[in-house]
Amino acid sequence: MTLGHPPVQQAHVPWAVRANQSSSFWRLVAVEARKLVGSRSDKIVMASAPLFLIGLMLLFTLPQSNLASAGKQLQPMLVVVQLGLLLVFATVIKLVAGEWQYKSVQPTLLVQPSRMRYLLAQAVVLAGVWVVCTLVTFILYPVLIKMAANGLNHDYLLGNRPGWVLGVAMLSTALVLLTALIVSLLIPNTGGSLTVFFIVVPLLALARMLLPDVFGLIYPLEPAWHLAGSGAGWPQTISSLVVWLTLLGISLLVLSRRDAG
């Protein structure tokens, strides 16, 4: 005969009840969002990102000497998006690749084993990053390029086509973010992913400037250049989309089979 209070059924203890319940999807999204600023270095990088972006915008807008056409006024934005948002995309790479390198993904997959839900939660966070980066670029860039055009006594032409400017900003930001995601999924090592993204991708951009007909076929931002009116052509645009969408499919397949242990 047991003395004292009868044993409490463990299944009805509050912590046990919560443990048996699956986490809501939006809770997973909140967890992934907090990982973007999970460490002190991440907070510093994200706080420095707007200053870095504004600095790059000033560097690539105010010194321009030929802004006589709408295309000339829009082209610097494509360079700004690729280079000015590097700090933001570096944090994204650390979020995606670092989890697999240091096995910090294990707690998330233990709470909810579905890798699809985990990936969708990260996708929502990345979509939020994309929206914020796009809006900041869309708001700040026209102001600076207008100042540069006025300084050259050129008419500011982008104000007549805000939808076009927004579309280019959205597409270019999405393509660079997609490139960072693909690299971090294929190379589950923070140092390796950052090396490829910071060295190989800019080198590819330089090669595209020198030989657009050749390297435009694999340049990730070629569709954005095409939309901006400075693309190498439809074959390069279509080829670029096929190449990077194929790489995205491969990276997702690799992720689904990757050992989290």
Topology readout:
Elements: H1 14-20, H2 25-35, H3 40-61, H4 70-84, H5 86-101, H6 105-111, H7 115-151, H8 162-186, H9 190-210, H10 212-215, H11 222-227, H12 234-257
Summarize the structure.
The chain is 75% helix and 0% strand. The chain is mostly helical and 261 residues long. About 2% of the residues have low confidence.
How would you describe the overall organization of this protein?
The chain is mainly alpha-helical. The protein has one domain. Helix content is 75%, strand content 0%. The chain is built from twelve helices and no strands. The radius of gyration is 23 Å and the shape is globular. It comes from Lentzea alba. Keywords: Membrane, Transmembrane, Transmembrane helix.
Q: Considering DSSP H and I runs of 4 or more, what fraction of the residues is helical?
A: over 70%
Largest sheet: none
Structural class: mainly alpha
Compute the separation of the termini in Å: 45 Å
Question: Structurally, how many domains make up the residues?
Answer: 1
Mean pLDDT: 84
Query: Helix segment count?
Result: 12
Strand coverage percent: under 5%
Helix-strand pattern: HHHHHHHHHHHH
How many DSSP-defined strands? Answer: 0
State the shape: globular
CA gyration radius, whole angstroms: 23 Å
Which regions have little confidence, pLDDT < 50, spanning 5+ residues?
Answer: 15-20
